[in-house]
Amino acid sequence: MHIMNHLKHTLIIASLFLCSCSDMGAKKEPLKGDRISAYAAAPNVIPDASITTKQYLIPGAAPTSWSASKYPSEAMGKNLELSTEALKKVREFKLSTSRYSNVTIPVIANNTMFMVDNSGWIQAIDLSAGKTVWQNNDLLKNPALTKLLDRKKMVFGGILHHEGKLFVSAGFKGLMAIDSASGKTVWHKELSTMVRGVPVYANGKILVQAANNNVFALDAEKGDLAWSYWGVKGSEITPLDPPVMAVYKDVVVSAQTGNALHGIHINSGELAWDSLFYEAYEETAGLFTVSANQVQVTSFDGLIYANHPAGRMMAVNPADGHVVWKQDIDSGQPFWIAGDLIFTTTKAENLTALDRHNGKVKWSTALSSFAPKNKKGKQSAIWMQQPIIAGGEILLASSDGALHRFDYNDGHHLGAMIVSDSISSAPIVANSQLFIPSKSGIVQLTPPKSK
Description:
By secondary structure, this protein is mainly β. Helix content is about 5%, strand content about 35%. Strand 14 (about 215-220) and strand 15 form a beta hairpin. The chain is globular.
């Protein structure tokens, strides 16, 4: 009991400390010294003067289909093809319910949008015609799948589109595969616990992380269970944070709730290595005992990149788990990689760019200057989503329905436009078109046709 009280006390103090940072960097002033131009930011994300002379090139624009519900591997590391100079609303795809409607983020492939709404229906929408192609309600009809589904039928999970199939998890006690052309269920598999992770594909297997951190590998064709990995116990993954694992060759990397990354052999399910964000002797080590698994893990260009809700980001060698670099930037938020830079937002409300090779901060921009004000002149609550790079600019959505644009090279604010009454997830760029998930549906925006 004494230990639990001490832990609660530590977490309360830590929470107060992190909250106290929210007003830092509110002043819009140039940073002093010979650094990349930026706005004033929290002290822990001040740009590193030693990298100001390095050239950071925007990678060539690349069209992509958004085939995974979160952090698609085919888009990460690229500058997505999109004209951001003039965007206009084309249409909005309404869902059957408005509450948390897009926790399960849709995927887009072959000019079709696939999504799961909160009533439990899985549907495909032709983006050219704006019409529903098919609907599948097998999730609601199968007791094995709905066994632990929320009583209000709110779904939390993810979708993967791979070689003509949709692999769907939605917070229920299982995983299902659907033919993406016809909408018919190919197979379903009941598992031992709720599955909230986004499925990933590797070596003929579908890999997914469960709410209790267990990892399951199933045959992609038949759904047979190949192996299961016993994850770290003590804290479950929250519904609003579906985790995504990263794959590098024969290893899948899982963020285990709390403090560790586990590299797991894809063919056998055995542990290959593990790496810690925080060592036990560090002063901030108590912060890794968090209840939410908000760790993003991404594989890019031979390294695994990951962050931690306590604010530490690191790069790891996927072959042996060796930590290449660690950086404390008060982040713990979803990030994006484009070329040699990593972009993320911090708890102190900064948009920050880091050198992905060494973790040094290139520039940091205070976001509080762009937050809306209420009638009393105070800053309204604002939730900046995962930044993405499209059209050579940084796009960052806020919960009040605004899409903000920032300069890639120095982080200056280029403007914003209201696209919805609210935004619930990061923007989706697919085949040069922009989609914004809102609480009521999916808003489609596209640049006007050139004359």
